[in-house]
């Protein structure tokens, strides 16, 4: 079977175009994934910060949540 060789620049350009088309066609999917990743990072940071703070009981938390808009 014969194989064709692509010049490195042609392969690079083809990959760039394919990636660009994929990002445009699936923009909403990438946005959702990115939002989830940011939320996960924020949750990890909140957990880290929470380890260094004093503990409170559930009733105190519920009171704060009731006051929030």
Low-confidence stretches: none
Structural class comes to mainly alpha
Instruction: Name the beta content range.
Output: under 5%
Largest sheet: none
**N→C terminal distance:** 68 Å
Count of separate DSSP helical elements: 3
Total beta strand runs:
0
General form = elongated
Q: What percent of residues adopt helix (DSSP H or I)?
A: over 70%
Helix and strand string, N-terminal first? HHH
Compute the gyration radius: what is it?
24 Å
Mean pLDDT: 89
Please tag this protein with its features.
mainly alpha, 3 helices, 77% helix
Describe what you observe in this structure.
The protein has a domain of about 40 residues. The protein is mainly alpha-helical and about 70 residues long. About 75% of the residues lie in helices and about 0% in strands.
Short characterization:
It contains 3 helices and no strands. It is mainly alpha-helical.
List the helices and strands and how they pair.
Blueprint: H1 8-25, H2 27-51, H3 58-67
